[in-house]
Write a structure and sequence with these properties.
Elements lengths: L20 H8 L1 H4 L33 H9 L22 E7 L2 E6 H12 L5
Antiparallel strand pairs: 1-2
Helix pairs in contact: 1-4, 3-4
Length: 129
């Protein structure tokens, strides 16, 4: 199932991201987070602290996928207090065409399609418990 995003679909020229979130993930994330997203990538044991289990983001957030927090963490805008600093800031890598994404309380933010695509992919990896 494709996650529903709060976007301004009525805007002229709107196109759904055709960027593959899995491809973006495989290119940028799999070395640490693993193909499963559980933090078991080939470099995981080399890191100071283990990578986050990306399959439990919804479970750890009361059953709701924390889209804005995920987007902010990936692009480097916001770093959590538990961040080891090992995760690169991918904002500069995820540039290009944007979609308009509601990021809460009616705020609409132009967001790079690859960033939205990888967040959608991560949402598809979520476990229920």
């Amino acid at each position: 199932a494709v996650p529903v995003l709060a976007v301004l679909a009525g805007c002229a020229g709107f196109e759904w991201p055709i960027v593959s979130g899995k491809a973006v993930y495989d290119e940028n994330c799999v070395m640490c987070h693993g193909t499963s997203g559980k933090g078991d990538g080939p470099l995981a044991s080399e890191l100071f602290s283990p990578p986050t289990d990306l399959t439990r983001l919804s479970v750890d957030n009361g059953g709701e996928f924390p889209r804005v927090r995920v987007l902010s963490h990936i692009d480097g805008y916001v770093r959590g207090e538990n961040s080891s600093g090992a995760m690169p800031e991918f904002g500069p890598l995820l540039v290009g065409d944007n979609v308009l994404l509601e990021t809460g309380e009616g705020v609409v933010t132009p967001t790079p399609k690859p960033l939205v695509a990888v967040a959608n992919y991560l949402e598809s990896l979520q476990v229920s418990e």
